[in-house]
Amino acid sequence: MDVSASVKTHVKTTNGMIRPDTFRVIAGPCTVESYEQFVASARAVKQAGFGYVRGGAFKPRTSPYSFQGLGEEGLRILSEVSGDLGLKVVTEVMDPYDIELVMGHAEILQIGARNMANFSLLRRVGAAIAGTDHGVVLKRGLSATVEEWLLAAEHVAAAGGDNVVLCERGIRTFETSTRFTLDLSAVIVAKRLTDLPVIVDPSHAAGRRDLVVPLSKAAVAAEADGLMVESHHEPQEALCDGEQALPVEALMGMKDVLQPFASAMGREVI
Ligand code: PEP
Ligand code: MN
To answer: Transferase: is it a keyword of this entry (predicted)?
Structure first.
């Protein structure tokens, strides 16, 4: 199948979020846990110089006994805090039933790795964002090929939603020293096959915070258009993914650490 031909016919670059001369960093906690937790983490994102904050309200947890997110209350916290700080929001939508609700609180809808092949969700999100300024971050499935990932984006586009950003977040391999294996080849391949922007999530790929900055540098060199990283004002207290969350000091240093690499690629870290 000629994926390149089909995907290229539909896509455009997301409004202002991704540009060829910028390297966009989206940061924030895995999950919105409370107003106090989110506002502290979001202030750090703002102080670090970034304009997009992430945080899950609906969480796809492997275990049904883990914290599942605050749901609608989490969305209200996201929009209130981001409105006060002047940040844009990226948050996951898991259920077609919640799409309109999530769109009322967030500019960018995340479709998580575990839902990449949920075709009815993809099509409903595509139809819902058609003709709006909303965008989608589409994560690569844990064991999806690049072709399957691009065709998932095509499902969103075929339903009318052409504002799609692909996100490589690591795939499952035999390696156990990292949570997943970050597949930077896939970033380069996807960018050759489509006009879609591609960002990298080093946090879920590594599963450990000491690898997040080195992998972020590698993502810049691999032609990525940006990053999505997890950060938390108190990582040791996080209800979800604390081991991979960057603490405030590391987030503050991120822009300066990445800019020389981004400059070499002709990009400004924003
Ligand atoms: C997340 O971004 O918190 C998340 C659950 O990501 P993924 O779908 O890539 O596991
Ligand atoms: Mn997470």
So the answer is: yes
Q: Please check the confidence at residue 30 and state whether its pLDDT lies above 70.
A: yes
**Domain extent for 88:** 21-269
CATH number of the domain residue 179 falls in: 3.20.20.70
- Please state the φ and ψ torsions of residue 228, each to the nearest 5 degrees: -125, 115
140 Cα–ligand 2 center, Å: 14
Going from the Cα of 30 to the center of ligand 2, the distance in angstroms, rounded, reads 4
Residue 59 CA: nearest ligand 1 atom is: 5
In a domain, 167, yes or no: yes
Q: How confident is the model at residue 16 (pLDDT cuts 50, 70, 90)?
A: confident
- The string of DSSP codes covering 22-39 is EEEEEEE-SB---HHHHH
How far apart, in Å, are the Cα atoms of 121 and each of 76, 114, 168, 269?
22, 12, 19, 32
Q: Which residue minimizes the CA distance to atom 9 of ligand 1?
A: 113
Q: Does residue 169 have its Cβ closer than 6 Å to ligand 1?
A: yes
Number of compact structural domains in the chain: 1
Question: What pLDDT, on a 0 to 100 scale, did the predictor assign at position 162?
Answer: 86
| CA 54 to ligand 1: nearest atom | 2
Mean pLDDT of 185-194: 96
